[in-house]
Amino acid sequence: MTQPPSPFTLNHHPHQEAPAIKTPEPAPQPPRETIWSIVAPLRPWYFATFLTLYTITGALIIAGEIRTQQDIIQTATAIIKGLSAAGMTSAITAYTIIETGRTFMVLAHHIKNWLDKKDQEFRDKLRAEGEAQGIAKGRAQNQQAWTDWLARKEDAESRGQPFTEPPPNGEAK
Question: Which residue has the higher pLDDT, 30 or 149?
Answer without folding.
Answer: 149
